[in-house]
Design a protein that fits this description.
The complex is a heterodimer of chains A (126) and B (519). Chain A is 35% helix and 0% strand. With 126 residues, chain A is mainly α. In chain B, strands 2, 3, 6, 7, 8, 9, 18 and 19 form an 8-stranded mixed β-sheet that branches. The chains are: A mainly alpha (126), B alpha/beta (519). Chain A: It is found in: Periplasm.
């Protein structure tokens, strides 16, 4: 009986991280689900073990280079103070900040700049 | 299959292929930091070897790396953060220079001796005079060096608190990023390896006690201590520590100054912590003045960190406006005193329970004309605009009559060229005779560590017991202690970082190389 119980506990322990890993952003749901209907962890994590934080190159394979991304969020020429700065090409950091410091797949995304600033990026998917 | 599905499938295939490149290193779960510093490794084998390793990528680190490279060494910079530049790329980008062409243009007489005297006075005589002279003596040449590396200064010279005369240059961006970004660009062009997310965990010494490399946690995801994997990087000529201060290490700063609790905000980036300093101390480095921690007197409690008010107050309120006690509408200190005097004065403003009563700094449109952060400050409601002094008094609940009387007294002082109330230097003082007015609430924030490891004029880190250099170990910038004594003057950290960084780079590049083995 004890053995059965501990086996159930073990199974639950194994199941929990899997359940977390399954929680992905809806906009990634389709593209990251394999033919078997399961989320393909390797899409971002490659062969690395679970919980390893992906490198920017994983994002770039779909989203393009950091320069492409910066171009997409460029401020219009002559924009005033009512337009927030380009988060992907910052005065302080250029394009150096890896994606994963703002964009989180398994929890709410956050804005790295807002450790100091109060920028509002209403279009950012959190 | 519709078009969208085809796109998706194609993208996913692409993604699957791309993922192979994204294999990250396995996280090592071994933390080395507590004792690794003192382990000699006679036959150490390294994953990578360069001449010079620079730890940190702020003013000191970038300057050290570039100078070492220009003197013929191969150089690698590591930084534990995801981004380069530490505090240096998020500050005001102001550099004190003794005898700049801009001073000459404005007819301001300056010299290295006057700058040394100003810094000694603010430092309350606690300064390491040899290092202080080295810094001041190098400002003019380093200013030219920065210009040659792509830095652009505003076309006027500013008067910062505690300096007896205007001698401060500021980047056109009003940010240290105006120095860091150009230096990074040149560094990459010159073949300097720049590695972010790479954290120093300990030093590697040879049998003679010379520092020959470091243990590095590569792929580190700040602040998760078990991320990344451990590698060994060898340094044939030496390791330069440009690791900054510990202003945002609340636990460690409170050991030095128990009153600097988490209730006191900091202008520093989250990586301004003490572990690199501790590793140097484990090697025998001599910590100097660690309890001398500077508060920035220009910050506002109405925003996080350095924010918009710090710049606004530095360039507008302090030189061109006044600061008053909200309860009386009256001034209570010399607004151009050094940072310690100003921060101490502001922090005397408390109610019966000891809670802060935030003073108000303000100037008018003319005084704020050069303040690039004004519009951002207004947008975030940190800076407030009033058309009349009565309206300003109303916004902040100040006694209007007393405020107006104070402004009149101030204007008399400006006309007389003499601040009879608080003895403020009046070279750049201006009449506050018309609105609109811009005001901001003020309260100091932890800004800079005057303390750090003791170095000699060759930027070698000195041993606590022998007072002789620890072979192969150099330090520059905020990581070093003693140059500023009890209070650093504004714009002197950029001066210190660039001048001592280059000094360290030059000396390290000249050091005799040892032969190291690759694994």
């Amino acid at each position: 009986m004890l053995k059965v119980l501990s086996t159930i506990c073990m199974l639950m322990l194994i199941a929990i991280p899997n359940a977390n890993a399954m929680k992905i952003k809806d906009y990634h749901q389709e593209i990251m689900t394999g033919d078997n209907g399961k989320v393909e962890c390797s899409a971002c994590h490659g062969d690395a073990k679970r919980k390893t934080i992906p490198e920017a190159s994983a994002c770039e394979s779909c989203h393009g280079s950091v320069e492409d991304i910066a171009e997409q969020t460029k401020r219009p020429a002559g924009a005033g103070h009512d337009v927030e700065p380009n988060p992907h090409d910052s005065l302080h950091y250029g394009t150096d900040l890896p994606c994963t410091y703002c964009h989180m797949e398994h929890k709410e995304s956050k804005v790295y700049c807002n450790q100091c600033h109060e920028f509002e990026y209403p279009d950012m998917k959190r | 299959m519709n078009d969208k599905e085809q796109v998706s499938l194609g993208r996913r295939q692409l993604l699957k292929g791309g993922a192979a490149m994204a294999v990250a290193g396995l996280g090592s779960s071994v933390a080395l930091s507590a004792n690794a510093a003192c382990v000699p490794q006679a036959d150490a084998k390294f994953d990578e070897v360069v001449d010079v390793i620079v730890v940190g990528s702020g003013f000191a680190g970038m300057s050290a790396a570039l100078q070492a490279r220009e003197n013929g060494s191969s150089v690698m910079i590591i930084d534990k953060m995801p981004v380069f530049g530490g505090n240096s790329t998020i500050n005001g980008g102001a550099m004190a220079v003794a005898g700049s062409p801009l001073q000459k243009k404005e007819g301001i007489e300056d010299s290295v001796d006057v700058m040394v005297a100003d810094m000694l006075e603010a430092g309350r005589g606690m300064n390491d005079v040899e290092m202080l002279k080295l810094v001041c003596n190098g400002t003019s040449e380093s200013c030219d060096w920065l210009i040659n590396h792509g830095v652009e200064w505003k076309p006027f010279v500013q008067h910062f608190g505690g300096h007896s005369i205007p001698r401060v240059l500021q980047t056109v961006q009003s940010s240290g990023a105006g120095i860091i970004r150009p230096l990074i660009k040149v560094a990459k062009k010159n073949g300097i390896e720049m590695r972010n997310q790479a954290k120093l965990e300990g030093f590697i010494k040879d049998e003679n006690g010379r520092v020959i490399g470091i243990d590095v946690r590569q792929g580190y995801y700040f602040p998760k201590e078990r991320t990344g994997k451990m590698i060994k990087i060898g340094a044939r000529k030496g390791v330069i520590m440009a690791t900054g201060g510990f202003g945002n290490d609340i636990e460690y700063r409170q050991m030095q100054q128990p009153e600097y609790t988490n209730q006191l905000d900091s202008t520093n980036h989250p990586g301004a912590t003490s572990e690199a300093l501790k590793q140097m101390m484990l090697l025998g480095a001599n910590p100097i003045h660690l309890d001398q921690i500077q508060l920035g007197p220009w910050a506002s409690p109405d925003e996080k960190g350095f924010g918009t008010a710090s710049q606004f107050n530095t360039i507008a309120t302090y030189p061109s406006g006044i600061v008053v006690d909200v309860r009386t509408g009256e001034r209570f200190f010399n607004e151009l005193a050094d940072r310690k005097a100003r921060a101490d004065a502001i922090m005397t403003r408390r109610d019966d329970q000891g809670n802060p009563v935030y003073p108000i700094g303000f100037t008018n449109a003319e005084g704020a004309k050069d303040a690039q952060t004004l519009d951002w400050g207004l947008k975030y409601n940190v800076i407030k605009k009033a058309d009349t002094l009565e309206e300003l008094a109303k916004i902040y609940n100040m006694p209007a009559k007393a405020l107006i009387a104070q402004v009149e007294r101030w204007n008399e002082s400006v006309t007389n060229g003499n601040d009879s109330e608080f003895g403020r230097p009046m070279q750049k003082a201006m009449l506050l005779d018309k609105g609109p007015w811009y005001g901001v609430r003020m309260w100091p924030k932890v800004h800079y560590c005057m303390g750090g490891v003791r170095v000699n004029t060759a930027s070698e880190v000195l041993h606590l017991v022998t007072n002789k250099p620890i072979p192969g170990l150099y330090a520059a910038g905020e990581a070093t202690g003693g140059i500023h004594g009890a209070s650093r003057l504004g714009a002197c950290a950029v001066a210190e970082g660039v001048v001592t960084g280059r000094n360290a780079g030059r000396h390290c590049a000249e050091n005799q190389a040892v032969t190291l083995k690759l694994a």
